[in-house]
Design a protein that fits this description.
heterodimer, A: about 450 residues, alpha/beta, Aspartate Aminotransferase, domain 2, 3 domains, seven-stranded mixed β-sheet, about 35% helix, about 15% strand, globular, B: about 525 residues, Aspartate Aminotransferase, domain 1, 2 domains, 15 helices
């Protein structure tokens, strides 16, 4: 099946080169290369698939026309969050993460990929400053996998097998955690107060016991609220001999407290807000952090990059406690690991270097101001309650549409016609909230954008 | 016919960059967030007013303070100190299928039409993306012979884990939850053990015979009423194809188990042999390996999980369905294992790999496989005869290797005391990525695993062979040069002992300052 013309991606498909190389290895034809595969296992025909578009001109045209049918969050104003959020990505971040050297690097370590390793170390270090932890993982797949690992770590550290999670948890995250921890741990939801959105402390007390490995809480939680009793929850976990695991949206940490200061033993969260585009969810990347104690570090399933000095007193970087990883432990591993989302660690490093402490504080203030303004505007629409939960919130809040007689789906159809990706429908995932939606407002939303949403929503429910 | 190459003097970029923290100048700014404006500020008042004091930030985060050009320059320099696939003859990372990632694919996914999509947008607003996913699923079904795929797993290991979960769900649905053992081989990827272990299985690992392959007898001995399935790579890490693979799957099926084919690296067999004909029920392809999506510093991966129709009800939720002339995400799947990753994995990587396959077509994919195997055999031919170098299991098995070879420096090590880690470190001085020895455990002594994919040229292969030849000669003639390497890399020899010492390791700048200041 020798080609008459080389394929641009395959240098040695040039007919003469191919023939010379086959001769060099003693093969009469390419089929001879597969002599070790028995005939009964050979496909023996050309696969059936779409015709090739070998010219880049045709390929690009075809795919651009296909993808241009998508209606992006640039095409429409978007108030969708719920685990992946619209934030501004500084141009310098994109410049760096798109560099071919980083984009196409893989598993080079101390020497050939020194720059990548330094960027990883700096990224972990800056996350460590946000959460005030000395041990920080390389990225996990997403917040869900970070939380699942953090809960698993708590199980091993305490030798206990039950974990308590907020009942309001993101359904996607909950499903990942259930599947991941389910083989070894029991996961009990802790009810929340439907008026405030906060964890019900009496219910928590009733569920705590000497078999509880950890209490998991989030700031902000899926429904946008900040747990007002975070310190008390951590204290009660500790009193029961359990660990406190706190999940965070780290873009809030210029204004919100570092979780260890109110009692967190393990911190986890989602890095996507820190300079990573949404990518239809492909921008997610989780992290885990804790104190730098040997017993904690030994339980991390992820890559851990450490710094040291070379023989010439330069910075050098390597893998800390490589022996704990599933690459070594194989079937004895506590948890698997693999290629995750480490390019985004580099994006996070650039982002946090640009923002600095003042930028993070100013950004947090802007997000809280704008989201609170949005809640005021939407809550003023007849029949609409916003914020529907009274606990303080960061960038997302629940809008209660039950008083409008309209479903979220109907309202969002109207908003779509007005050029708006409407807020996330909660009516199927959080039944007790009825026809409610989760509205996300960030630094990208101007006052005019928020006013436009309010106008479109008012028209939709009128 | 063999090209003579001359190695050029090389030095990697070596900026000796201080850490970003060490470059901080208080008061500098790299970015100004927008202010909310007088109207909003007046309407809201103090936005932190409702927060309990215990939840307000007490100390500003200790982030560096840098102007924008300083940040750009720092990270550009770090990129220059990274030997990505774009800038080196990247064939040393065996088992990883390093290949060219076409730039047009990057241009496509950098459009806001992919980059700025929210994963829970209405299906009607992502019809282009869903169609790409659907059409690429059909392509992978043809390549594997299996019936359905999901792109949700965010990497190969996660796909193996997902498939282990589906195996568990399948047995549970049949009232056979007592099946709690998975069989794998020591030359399969470590995740074929770790993925099912995370899902709650006990692992049985088969070791190879003198031919480098697991035996049918060993498999039969491992089979019992507790067998849930087999999770295996083929060709294994040695590059040897197991010609009895369908006998293996027959035996497991006869015992009531299921068979998963780890096809992370399918580069040598595209269009040649498939999961279906070998009797597999599940498989996974790593789109960032065989299917050309960039490795992204260990990022943006997709493990595409494929199953037969019998297992399709257990696939993670949602799946893409064609309906009414369009496409939709189906969340109504009562037997599904649920989510293994939030949302839909890394859809941009599906687009990249779809574009890659479209650029090749069926015959092009077969060409990829043939040239990958040809390149590997050509490189082995060029390395043959290097003093101190052997091909693993060559004595017990004279079959051609497919896409990679696990070599051994056992003899060189015995002769010189130089080990494979030293040699790999030295290759960096010649401008190539430090090669990959082997996954653990090192059954092959002093291993080296090379995998030249289809995107390296003959001249590249000749150059690489010259580098290996040169480094091996140095081991005999000037071993100090190797022991003290690297000499022309970004940095110099690093004692790795602190990485295992809790008193000295430092995972963050905070920890470094406490332990070493």
């Amino acid at each position: 099946m020798s080609r008459t013309r080389a394929h641009p991606y395959i240098p040695n498909s040039a007919p003469r080169v191919r023939a010379e190389m086959l001769a060099a290895v003693g093969a009469a034809t390419a089929d001879d290369l597969y002599a070790s595969i028995p005939e009964r296992l050979l496909l023996g025909r050309v696969m059936t698939m779409e015709p090739a578009l070998e010219s880049e001109v045709e390929l690009r045209r075809h795919l651009r026309e296909l993808l241009d049918r998508n209606v992006s969050t640039e095409d429409r104003l978007s108030f969708l969050g719920g685990g992946c959020w619209p934030h501004y990505v500084p141009a310098v971040v994109d410049e760096i993460v798109n560099r071919g050297e980083f984009l196409t690097a893989y598993y080079g370590e101390t020497y050939a990929d020194h720059g990548k390793m330094q960027a990883f170390f700096e990224s972990s270090s800056m996350i460590g400053e946000l959460v005030e932890c000395e041990a920080v993982s390389q990225p996990t797949y997403d917040w869900a996998s970070a939380a699942a690992s953090a809960i698993s770590m708590a199980g091993r550290l305490t030798g206990r097998s039950r974990a308590l999670l907020p009942a309001s948890l993101c359904p996607e995250r909950r499903s990942v955690i259930d599947g991941y921890c389910g083989a070894r741990m029991r996961l009990d939801p802790v009810p929340y107060d439907p008026a405030t959105g906060a964890i019900d402390l009496a219910a928590l007390d009733a569920l705590l016991g000497d078999d509880v490995a950890c209490v998991y809480l989030e700031n902000p939680g899926f429904l946008g609220t900040i747990e007002p009793d975070s310190a008390a929850i951590c204290e009660r976990a500790h009193a029961a001999g359990a660990l406190a695991v706190v999940g965070v949206d780290p873009i809030s940490l210029g204004v919100l407290e570092a979780p260890p200061r109110y009692g967190a033993d393990i911190v986890c969260g989602e890095l996507q807000p820190l300079g990573i585009h949404q990518h239809h969810g492909g921008g997610l990347a989780g992290f885990i952090a804790s104190a730098d104690e040997e017993r904690y570090v030994g339980e991390y399933p992820t890559f851990l990059v450490g710094a040291a000095r070379t023989e010439r007193d330069e910075w050098g970087f390597g893998e800390v406690r490589w022996d704990r990883m599933s690459y070594v432990q194989r079937g004895d591993a506590k948890e698997y690991t693999g290629t995750t989302q480490c390019l985004w660690a580099i994006g996070v490093a650039v982002y946090l270097s640009l923002l600095g402490p003042d930028g993070m504080r100013e950004l947090g203030m802007t997000i809280m101001q704008r989201s609170q303004y949005a809640a005021q505007r939407l809550g003023a629409i007849p029949g609409v309650r916003a914020p529907a939960l009274t606990a303080p919130f960061f960038k997302e809040f629940v809008i209660d549409l039950n008083g409008t007689g309209r479903t979220v789906a109907e309202v969002n159809r109207s908003l779509g016609e007005a050029g708006i990706h409407g807020p996330l429908d909660l009516s199927r995932s959080h039944l007790q909230l009825g026809q409610s939606a989760l509205c996300c407002v960030t630094e990208i939303h101007t006052q005019a954008d928020i006013d436009r949403l309010a106008g479109a929503l008012a028209a939709a429910v009128a | 016919m063999t090209t003579t190459t001359r190695l050029q003097p090389f030095h990697q970029a070596s900026w000796n960059q201080p850490l970003v923290f060490e470059q901080s100048t208080p008061g500098e700014r790299g970015f100004i967030p927008p202010a909310s404006g007088a109207t909003i500020e007046a309407a809201v008042g103090d936005p932190l007013a409702a927060l309990p004091a215990s939840l307000r930030r007490s100390l500003p985060p200790g982030l560096p303070e840098l102007a924008q050009p300083t940040v750009l320059r720092h990270y550009l320099r770090l990129s220059q100190e990274t030997l990505g696939q774009d800038v080196n003859i990247g064939l040393g990372l065996g088992t990883c299928t390093m290949k060219y990632s076409p730039k047009v694919n990057e241009e496509l996914v950098r459009s806001h039409k992919v980059r700025d999509l929210h994963p829970l947008q209405d299906d009607e607003t992502v019809q282009g993306l869903l169609e790409a996913m659907h059409r690429f699923e059909r392509i992978l079904c043809e390549i594997s012979g299996l019936d359905r795929f999901t792109f949700q797993p965010g990497g190969g290991s996660q796909a193996v884990y997902a498939n282990a979960r589906m195996i568990a769900a399948y047995h549970a649905a049949r009232g056979e939850s007592h099946r709690d053992e998975i069989i794998t081989t020591v030359f399969s990827h470590p995740c074929d053990g770790a993925g099912p272990a995370t899902a709650g299985f006990r692992l049985i690992t088969l070791h190879p015979g003198e031919d480098g392959l697991p035996s049918l007898e060993a498999l039969k001995a491992a089979i019992s009423e507790r067998t849930a399935g087999l999770m295996i790579t083929n060709p294994e890490d040695t590059g040897l194809f197991n010609p009895q693979i369908d006998r293996f799957t027959d035996i497991v099926h006869a015992a009531g188990g299921l068979c998963h084919y780890d096809q992370a690296n399918a580069n040598g067999i595209l269009g040649v042999t498939r999961a279906r004909e070998a009797g597999f029920d599940l498989c996974q392809f790593n789109l960032h390996k065989t299917f050309s999506s960039p490795h992204a510093s260990m990022g943006m991966p997709v493990g595409a999980s494929g199953v037969t129709s019998a297992l399709a009800p257990f696939l993670p939720t949602p799946v893409v369905e064609a309906a009414d002339g369009g496409y939709r995400l189906d969340y109504d799947r009562p037997q599904s294992i649920g989510k293994v990753r939030q949302f839909h994995g890394v859809p941009a990587t599906v687009v990249r790999s779809f574009a890659w396959v479209l650029a090749l077509g069926a015959e092009g994919l077969r060409e990829v496989a043939e040239i990958a195997v040809l390149n590997n055999n050509y490189l082995a031919h060029r390395l043959d005869g290097i003093r101190g170098l052997e091909v693993s299991f060559a004595d017990g098995n004279d079959a051609r290797r497919l896409e990679q070879v696990r070599y051994s420096w056992r003899q060189l090590n015995a002769d010189t005391g130089i080990g494979t880690i030293d040699l790999a470190r030295r290759t960096v001085d010649y401008g190539v990525q430090q090669y990959f020895p082997s996954h653990e455990p090192w059954l092959v002594e002093e291993p080296m695993t090379l995998e030249p994919a289809e995107t390296v040229s003959r001249a590249d292969l000749d150059t690489y062979a010259e580098i290996i030849t040169r480094v091996a000669a140095e081991a005999y003639d000037e071993p100090e040069t190797i022991r003290t390497a690297p000499h022309s890399s970004t940095s110099h020899f690093l004692d790795a002992a602190p990485m295992d010492d809790p008193e000295r390791w430092a995972l963050t700048w905070r920890a470094w300052r406490r332990k070493h200041a």
